[in-house]
Structure formats: structure tokens, C-alpha cells
Amino acid sequence: MRLPEEFLGDLDEEFAKGTHSRLWYWKEMILMVNHLISRWIVFAGGAGVIAGTAMATLSWAHQPTIFVLLPYGLIVVATAVLLRARSDFPFLARFTILLTAFMVASLTQYFELGFHLNVVRQPVWLQAALFGGTLGIGCVISVCAALVSGRGLNRYLSSIALGVLGGGAMFISMKWTNFIPMALAFALLAVASAFVLRQTRALARVALSLLAWTVAGSLPLLIYLAFARRPGDFARFWDAFWLRALVSTVIGSLFVAAAGKRTRSRISN
Amino acid sequence: MKTLGEFERAVLLAILHIGDESYGVNIRLQLEKALKRKISFGAVYTTLDRLLEKGFLSSYSGDPTPERGGRAKKFFKVEAAGRKALERARRTHDAIWRLAPTRGTP
Prior knowledge:
The structure holds two protein chains of two kinds. Chain A is 84% helix and 0% strand. Chain A contains nine helices and no strands. In chain A, α3 runs antiparallel to α4. The longest helix of chain A has 40 residues. Chain B is built from four helices and two strands. A two-stranded antiparallel ribbon of chain B has the order 1-2. In chain B, a hairpin with a 5-residue loop joins β1 and β2. The mean pLDDT of chain B is 89. The chains are: A mainly alpha, B alpha+beta.
């Protein structure tokens, strides 16, 4: 990253007047760096929320496959494009981008399911229902996201939350198991993300997002334990799940907090 | 249709007000005077970049000067698209204010 020459020149000229302290000089420099990287913070924020969710999902599903990450990645990119475009993109463009992303994501999920869960061996009507169902969910979510993606920053942030929720809903619709805990966890993450991103205090952002991710990460564990029947279930689940859930909790929290910082920066402009 | 944010409008109007000497230092100074608050160079340059991307502004480089560490000034000029966008924003603003009840109206 390189600071613009004209900015450095302006800063030197202003500082040479002798009306500002050295502290002011460095503060201006840091603010400029912050502005330059802010777009990437937004991208990292969106990516972090969804990647963290995907990591947690992989832990819960016990089926780590690269295909699971593809649809999430696609939705992250689409959301990032929309965020960057802000109000420059007309409604139709935003709608089309999201719709395409969700439809392709649905297709990827379908093929992932075919490869790993042997759905292709199921009756045709069930395959059609699964495919249609995921497409339907994707479309409904994308319409909602497009509708709330009107002018105003908070609308866009809400679309991230909807994106997370939509990705989660599609994933859940394919996995069959652990529906209620996973749905609760995703809903909690989505609501918390939307709420945390609106906060202004750094400590509050970190604390709230950490709490949300921890509760969301613990939900499936607690429900699983409540229904565990065989000896050794607890130890097995702990070993496989907890460390990855913890990592995703921390990563998710940091990224959400970073995205929240971006929100404040944009509003202050 | 490309729209203008509040700060973007302020920057465009500041450049129109300053005229030929519109570069970072002067624009920031003018904005601080008009808006009566501290403005960072980062905020000014981010907005200038956005306005350049939208085609509302054009820029050209001046000569390097010693007090700037040998760096050239970058001057900004409002383009026709920028003037039109300002006019649109003004019409919208006026139309909204006409909705406000005047004194004596029930």
C-alpha cells in the first residue's frame, strides 16, 4: 500500500505552518491509512463472518469437504461487491448479483450433496424436491437481501446478516441432522452480526460478537450432550468439536469487530 | 443515476467556491470553515477519489514546491456531470423542504 503523493505534500505543507503538533501529523497519517484499507476491512468483515460460520458448520457436520466452502465463498464475494458498490448500483443490478450468487451456490450445494451424501441414489422426486427447495430458499433470501439493500449503510449490513442466514439455511436444508440447534445458531449469529455492526464502542463490539459466537458455538454441543446416550460420546464430541469451534469463535468475533469499525468510519464521513 | 452524499456535496461546493486553487489543503480549510468541525485529510481524499470515480471531478498536477517536500499539488475541477448532480441534489432538497409546514399552517 502506498500513500498518495499529493496527500503527503498537503500534510507537509499544513504541518510547516506550525499550527499543528507532531501528534496531529501522525494521527492524520493513520486516518489516511484507515481510509485506504477500509474497503478491504469490509471485505474481510463479510468474509470473516461467513468463513467463521462455515468453519463452525464443518465442525458440527463432521464432514470437512472443500465443496462446503465454495457456496459460502461465492456469497461472500457477491456481498462484498454490493458493499463496495453502495448506492452506485441500481436495484436491478444488486438483485441480479445476489440472485445469481445464490443460484450458483445452490447448484454447488446440490453437487456437493450428490458427491458426499449419495443423494443421487435417492428417488428422483426427492432429488427434485431438494434441488427445488434449495433454489427456492436461495431466491427468497436473495429477494429479501435485495429489498433491504436500499440506500443507507445499515441496509447493506443487514444484507450481510441475511446472506449468512441464507447460506446457513441452504446448508441446513441439505444436511437433515441437527436442524433446530443449527438454525438457532445461524439465526443468533445473523441477528448478532447485524446488531454488533451498528455499535460504536470497540469493546462493546468485541464483547457482543464474542458472546454471540460462543453461545452459537455451544448450542449444538449442549443439545447434542442432552441427547447423548452412549458412554464416551462426550469425550469424542469434545475432541472433535471444541477446539475448532473456539477458533471460529475468536476469528468471527475479530472480523465482526473490524467490520463494525468500518461502519463507524463511514458514518463519521 | 449517480447520487451525492452530504459530504460529497460539501466537497463539490467547496471546490466551486475556491475555483482554480482547489487542492487538498484549501479544500479541507474551506470545509472546516463551512461545516464548523475538524475534517481529516483522509476523509477529504477518500471523498475526492470517490467523486473522481463517479466522473464528477477531474484533476491535474501542479509544480512541486519546497514546503511540500518537493511534492506536486493535485488540483481538482468540478465537471459538468458534477454540476448537474449538484443541481439535482438541490432540487430534491428544495422539494423535500416544501413539504415542511409553514408558520400559521394548521
